[in-house]
Amino acid sequence: MYILEKLLKQVFSFFRIYQLSDVYKHGGFDAFFTFQGVTTLLLFLMPIILFIEIFRSFFVLKKGIRGFIMPLIIDVANRLISRVIGISVGAFCIVVFKPYALFETTLTWYWFAYAYVIWELGHFIYHYLCHKVRLFWCLHSTHHTPEEMNMSVSYSHFFLEAPFSDFIRTTTCILLGVSPLMFAMVVVIDWVWAELNHLSEDTLKDASFGMVGKFILTPSHHRVHHSRNELYLDKNFGNLLNIWDKVFQTYQPELPEVKPEYGITRKVNTASFWDVYFGEIYHLAKDVYFAPGIKNKLKYLFFPPGWTHTGDSQMVRQNRKKQSPKVN
User: Which residue intervals of the chain are DSSP H helices?
Assistant: First the structure.
């Protein structure tokens, strides 16, 4: 009975039932027209869409649900870990760095636009480091191991990635003047869009969004980001805005002739929780252990994935094929 009660509590938490109930208790239906109410409804909608994807995959498309299982297992594991380790890096950064902010934004549309551009800069920095520094890649690789794209992938993260990303994104925003309230509004939009960006081809076949996709990053762009195709590796680090990818020349639209192949370049046993969750950490530890000298050991930690001390490195920049189609 105890275990069933705990499982039921986790299900309610996953669907944000408790949050919905709290909003209603504090203001009835009118409370859902407030910022907190709209936020709660949006976050409640995300797992609903996920389960629609699961239902369609199993009953309509007859594809089964294998591609959903491991990300959801990882989400359960992270929930168990979070019960033991409570990490609130975002709140810590706001308290510590707010006195050093260059200025502070107010609640106006133009400052909101500024806040979102700055948030995307912080997101780009964190995301870029995750792909270019092997130690940080170990935190991020769990998110890239699924070989199918669907909304459950948004739940597949190593538990230490969130504190790392929160530190960089929050610090960037606070130091560059984004107020805590504006910051909270931006986070909600980013969170919702990040989950929608993982919609499968079965749910949203043409995800380029036409002309709109020239100005924002769509699920099509994020499919590129999750692909291991040579052309698509290490592209589209932003979440909603493509401004920083264009500035730093990491922008790449999905091309009709290059179908995304999801996953990472290393062969992964996607049915193994150990390999998906700890595989990259294991291989890094192994490389560091056998590397000769402290200098090479440090290079394995902080150089890009694929670097080796033997001279046969397989880093993305080195392997990019010259005959690949050019970025539009």
Answer: 2-14, 17-27, 35-55, 66-84, 89-97, 109-132, 134-144, 161-175, 180-196, 219-225, 243-247, 273-290, 293-302, 316-319
DSSP state of 103: -
Q: How many angstroms separate the CA atoms of 3 and 206, rounded? A: 43
Helix (H, G, I), strand (E, B) or coil at 265: coil
Residue 116's pLDDT is: 98
- More confident of the two residues 4 and 49: 49
| Residue 302 neighbours by CB under 8 Å, 6+ apart | 133, 134, 135
Asked if 243 and 223 count as a contact pair (C-beta separation under 8 A), the reply is no
What's the confidence (pLDDT) of residue 243? Answer: 97
pLDDT of residue 8: 77
Residue 145 CA from chain centroid, whole number: 12
Q: Which of 268, 96, 87, 95 minimizes the C-alpha distance to 160?
A: 87
Q: Is 34 left (phi over 0), alpha (psi -120 to 50) or beta?
A: beta
Cα distances (angstroms) measured from residue 297 to each of 94, 124, 131, 140, 251: 34, 27, 19, 20, 32
* Cα 20 off chain centre by: 25
Residue 45 in tokens: 């909608």
Q: For 229, which DSSP code? A: S
Instruction: Count how many Cα atoms sit within 13 Å of the Cα of residue 134 in the half-sphere of its side chain.
Output: 24
What is the rounded distance in angstroms from the CA atom of residue 59 to the CA atom of residue 85?
A: 38
182 alpha-carbon distance from chain centroid: 21
- pLDDT, mean of residues 254-279: 97
CA dihedral 201, 206, 207, 209 (to 10 degrees): -170
Query: What's the pLDDT score for residue 320?
Result: 60
- Cβ count near 103 (within 10 Å): 9
How many angstroms separate the CA atoms of 309 and 257, rounded?
36
Give the integer Cα–Cα distance in Å for 10 and 78: 12
Across 143-172, average pLDDT: 97
pLDDT per residue over 209-230, tens digit each?
999 999 999 999 999 999 999 9
